[in-house]
């Protein structure tokens, strides 16, 4: 096996396409994703204001909207039609309508409506606009409502109770700042690396086990199918682990993502995750014996994997088929392990299940690869 590994390391610099796939592309991926999500928290979503009241109160609400970290008031629309055109064109992400006589109605104790329109097709931007507008409007109106009630003869405590009869407290756990580095970047890096590791391994295996190649030489050098295959893929395993480790240094060091759990458990999970991802690529090739079809199979399995991980849409709400598909993808368990051990400090006995599933996936895929290679070897040996 060591002889095969040494051979593979010597041949890697002579294969520019493979070196680019294994080293250059993952590093570019790290730089691009890090650059995209470096800000962490999206701010300054453009909104339009439709001020039909033009009072001191409506101007105060506009100032509060512009001061909210999520929002920037970039347009003053004259009516809803103009605001709709701005949203459809993408010039703004939302619009806030303040009706006529807003200040007068609130002063009289009426309940006028301030309406927020936002584009929720782009869910992240739409949610930011809705949350920022709601907080800014509530802040701007709370003091006025309290003053109105006190002016009507209510005691301060009674006025507060009337405005909020049942106080509510909401606490966001583990990512209270809604930081996209914690939420998306920590999951996207393994997801993309899973695709690259599978594709690179398939290509590396095709160079020795493809049609017209002579895998028997490699098997004799390694002393069997298993050591030959291990010697073939382990150099790339080390490279991908170094790249994953580099991304973790950036995440937990430069970008200050909390690391509250077991580093050793995460390291074990990383090894199994990379091996399982490589096994997807190797199995895809030995089943098809064609790099084009293997690449298509890898893309079918790994490209949509992020949607099955339960980050954007909870897995328990998915169909049984979708849950099973997600459970069969290594990235699902590795991302869960990373989140559990970095942000949530999940007990080890719970996170150990993710590691166990990664080991099962890697073991099953490895067994299928060896069975297929043995079958191919018997076919070639048959007269």
SSE arrangement:
Elements: H1 2-11, H2 16-37, E1 45-51, H3 56-67, E2 71-76, H4 80-89, E3 94-98, H5 102-107, E4 115-118, H6 123-151, H7 156-163, H8 180-209, H9 215-222, H10 225-254, H11 263-288, H12 291-302, H13 320-327, H14 330-344, H15 348-381
Structure write-up:
The protein is mainly α. The chain is built from 15 helices and four strands. The protein has a four-stranded mixed beta sheet with strand order 2-1-3-4, with helices on both faces. Strand 1, helix 3 (56-67) and strand 2 (71-76) form a beta-alpha-beta unit.
Q: What Rg do the Cα atoms give?
A: 28 Å
The residue-averaged pLDDT reads: 86
Helix content: 55-70%
Please outline the major beta sheet: 4 strands, mixed
Give the number of helices. 15
Unreliable stretches covering 5 or more consecutive residues: none
Gap between N and C termini, in Å? Answer: 29 Å
Number of beta-strand segments: 4
- What string, H for helix and E for strand, traces the elements in order? HHEHEHEHEHHHHHHHHHH
Q: Which overall shape is indicated by the principal axes computed on the Cα atoms? A: elongated
- Given helix and strand content, the structural type is mainly alpha
Spatially, the strands of the biggest sheet line up as 2-1-3-4
Q: How much strand content do the residues show? A: 5-15%
């Amino acid at each position: 096996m060591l002889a095969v590994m040494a051979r593979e390391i010597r041949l890697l610099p002579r294969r520019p396409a493979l070196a680019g796939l294994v080293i250059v592309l993952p590093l570019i991926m790290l730089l691009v994703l890090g650059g995209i999500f470096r800000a962490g928290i999206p701010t300054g979503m453009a909104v339009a204001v439709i001020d039909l009241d033009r009072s001191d109160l409506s101007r105060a609400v506009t100032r509060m909207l512009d001061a909210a970290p999520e929002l920037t008031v970039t347009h003053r629309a004259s009516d809803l039609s103009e605001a709709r055109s701005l949203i459809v064109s993408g010039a703004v992400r939302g619009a806030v309508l303040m009706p006529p006589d807003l200040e007068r109605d609130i002063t009289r104790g009426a309940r006028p409506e301030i309406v927020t329109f936002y584009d929720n097709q782009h869910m992240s931007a739409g949610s930011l606009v809705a949350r920022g507008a709601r907080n800014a409007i509530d802040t701007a109106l709370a003091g006025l409502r309290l003053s109105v009630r006190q002016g009507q003869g209510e005691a301060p405590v009674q006025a507060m109770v009337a405005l909020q009869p049942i106080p509510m407290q909401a606490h966001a756990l583990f990512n209270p700042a809604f930081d996209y580095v914690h939420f998306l970047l920590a999951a996207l890096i393994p997801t993309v690396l899973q695709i690259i590791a599978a594709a690179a391994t398939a290509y590396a295996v095709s160079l020795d086990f493809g049609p017209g190649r002579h895998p028997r030489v490699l098997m004799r050098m390694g002393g069997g199918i298993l050591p030959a295959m291990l010697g073939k893929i382990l150099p790339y395993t080390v490279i991908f682990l170094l790249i994953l480790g580099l991304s973790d240094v950036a995440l937990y060091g430069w970008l200050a993502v909390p690391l509250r759990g077991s580093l050793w458990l995460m390291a074990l999970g990383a090894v199994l995750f990379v091996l399982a991802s490589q096994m997807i690529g190797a199995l895809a090739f030995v089943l098809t014996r064609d790099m084009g079809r293997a690449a298509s199979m890898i893309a079918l399995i790994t490209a949509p994997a992020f949607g099955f991980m339960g980050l954007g849409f909870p897995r328990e709400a998915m169909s049984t088929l979708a849950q099973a598909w997600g459970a069969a993808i290594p990235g699902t368990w590795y991302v869960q392990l990373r989140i559990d051990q970095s942000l949530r400090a999940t007990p080890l006995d719970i996170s150990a299940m993710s590691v166990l599933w990664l080991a099962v996936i890697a073991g099953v895929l490895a067994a299928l690869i060896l069975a297929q290679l043995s079958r191919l070897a018997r076919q070639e040996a048959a007269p």
